[in-house]
């Protein structure tokens, strides 16, 4: 991650991080963002923007809703995403992602990009924010990120007909982090299907599974 995302050792805040078999909503994951100095730093953030939720009957606070994905067509007009899109864009490192096909049971399908390694490292386009307004307790202090999605390409469509995460080409990392609103928005498009492949299929697979 340091090499691909050009992170100086003193700005890698993960410590002796071990590989993760999978990343789940509300759990921590590595994220690349701009430090206050303008340099890139590697930090941990919880996956999913949180919003308050109250009981309609009692008015008491319930477990907050988590928003794991942000649609590209809503970034400029939805309050939950707009400020982060303008001021707090980030890179989300990954080696593959899962979509589920069917139900009872669903089939897990894992997608990766092509390259010399079985699952080369890449980055999703992401947004982040610090703190969760209106949420009490530990969750209210979390730094969180969310993943931007766009229309599905021809490889993903048979599994998820409408959406897929935005995968950024390495040449576009800097533009996503520091470019203007229009420059960043122009990057929100499906990754070429011929530069991706399916690396695992099955029921209840983790990222390390083969199939």
From TrEMBL:
GO terms for molecular function: lyase activity; peptidase activity; single-stranded DNA binding. Pfam families: SRAP (PF02586). Its EC number is 3.4.-.-. Keywords: Covalent protein-DNA linkage, DNA damage, DNA-binding, Hydrolase, Lyase, Protease. One of its GO terms (biological process) is proteolysis. It is an enzyme of class 3 (hydrolase). InterPro entries: SRAP, SRAP-like. Belongs to the SOS response-associated peptidase family. This is Abasic site processing protein. The lineage of its organism: Bacteria, Pseudomonadati, Pseudomonadota, Alphaproteobacteria, Rhodobacterales.
């Amino acid at each position: 991650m340091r090499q691909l995302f050009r992170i100086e050792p003193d700005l890698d805040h993960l410590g002796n991080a071990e590989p993760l078999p999978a990343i789940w909503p509300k759990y921590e994951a590595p994220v690349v963002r701009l430090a206050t100095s303008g340099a890139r730093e590697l930090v941990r953030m919880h996956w999913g923007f949180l919003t308050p939720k109250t009981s309609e009957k009692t008015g008491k606070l319930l477990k907050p809703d988590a928003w794991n994905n942000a649609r590209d067509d809503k970034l400029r007009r939805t309050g939950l995403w707009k400020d982060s899109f303008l001021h707090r864009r980030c890179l989300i490192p990954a080696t593959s992602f899962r979509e589920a096909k069917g139900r009872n049971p669903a089939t897990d399908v894992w997608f990766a990009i092509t390259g010399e390694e079985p699952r080369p490292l890449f980055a999703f386009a992401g947004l982040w924010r610090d703190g969760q307004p209106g949420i009490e307790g530990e969750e209210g202090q979390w730094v969180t990120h969310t993943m931007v999605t766009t229309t599905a390409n021809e490889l993903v469509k048979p599994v998820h007909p409408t959406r897929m995460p935005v995968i950024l080409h390495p040449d576009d990392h800097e533009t996503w982090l520091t470019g203007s609103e229009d420059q960043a928005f122009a990057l929100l498009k499906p990754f070429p299907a011929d530069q991706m492949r399916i690396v695992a299929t099955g029921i209840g697979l983790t990222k390390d599974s083969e199939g």
